[in-house]
Amino acid sequence: MKKRMVLFVAVVTSLILSAGSLIAYPKDEVRVALAYEPATVNIMEMKGGIDIPVVVVMHESILATDPITGDRVLKNSLSESMIVLPDNKSIQVRMRKNARFHTGDPVTAYDVQFTYEQITNPKNANMMAPVMDEIEEIEVIDDYNLIFHLYEPYAPWKELFWIGIVSKKYYEKVGREKFRKHPVGSGPFKFVERKSGEYVLFEAWREHPTWKLDYKTLRFMTIPDDVTRLAMLETGEVDIVSNILPHNLKRLKRNKHVVIKRESRVPSLFGLSVKPDNFPIFKDSTLTDALSYAINRQEIVDRVFLGEGYPMWIYASKSELGYDPKFSDEFNPEKARQLIKKSKYKPGDPMILSYSSSVPNSSMIAAMVQRYLSKVGLTIKLQQLEAGIAATYNRNRDPREGHMTLYAWGGGRDPSIRLQMSIVSDSPYSSWATRPRVKELDALVAEQAKEMDEAKRLKLLNKIHAILDESSGGPVLLGANMIYAHSDRIDYNWQAHGEYVYNLHRIKMVKK
Hints:
Helices cover 30% and strands 21% of the residues. The chain is α+β, with helices and mostly antiparallel strands. α9 (285-294) runs antiparallel to α11 (333-342) and α15 packs antiparallel against α16. The protein starts with a helix and ends with a strand. 41% of the residues are buried.
């Protein structure tokens, strides 16, 4: 009976997938699978990261990542030039004059001013509003020249200028509700329609002055189930799937029509945070150093991520300013044992290691870390917490969080927000407010956040990492690759340093 049921399920699944593969999608359409339903198609109301790929395709921004080199530094896009003025907190922007909205109207400085005002308007509840609070005023000089006045020098100022610009004229003509349902921009794609829970459809804008697209339509398809996304890639129903788990690669490799790729230069940082303010035993760097020597990072990468990652020893994502591959330690259990003997740890005393679902593969990583630490003489008890509770405990410095916590940070191109939120002594997620050289470290973090010269800022970041290496708040463990795949009828490469699927206008049709 069981064999018949298994056979029945297999046959039904096969029929479903076969039927799906017969859906008559246009040959000149590219289809991208999304794991979650976008909250909006209106860039002024972005609520989370899943909205970003959908809204950016129809907009151009003042600055954009170089799509060819994938360089971390943003380049001119709608801007023709940008100058930091002598006060070090004002940025003068000159717009290029050939940019047009999908309506045919020119993109002007007034549209830029309007867009940023809407981003920070509380009624739009935009995810970028807190960051844009760095801007004190936007001064429009004329149609193509404006000045962004910041409250103070802001080192990652270029990160303020990736926001897509919308048409003030069109918005005021159609009103808020119609704009939400049918937005327009000046990017390579024009919005066509959105069917909630199913897809968002765009059409290539042939009048774009810069890009000439190789295909006609772009469809983002909402497919929450991991297995279904991969099955649809295999049958040709979708063309691009991202954030693929390593254990699914074996299956995909058997399909000759699927091209598997990966990018290591993406925001990714896994680590183990200790709590010296709650558990003073960690104030002695002897014990935290022992943790670092005891953990076999490469084995975690190989076993949990099937080799799709790399060991890390520095509190900086591989994709951000300040990352230095020279920071490294050896895996040396014997050295870890000797350090533990020198520490104030009493053999047999239990130490709690907490983990939550906010960290990918957290239960597997925690179990491996427990095994490593047990082998060098520490007694480790695992504690699984709900993600919200874990964040609350961490923010409130609640001892119930345990002695150490497994964490992951997606981050971005710039380290400033993470450093300010987790290292500064009075920051929300600082676990060591009484760290050695704390005043010096606080001052360095504040200084780098205002240093507009990148070379000088890098020196400050190097000093910060040197201090963190001396008095670690816990070992950094690894970074994971972005694994993605596409059908063999297209050619697409992930944008280095990007968190989401970008640069879709650069896709080439291999099979038309």
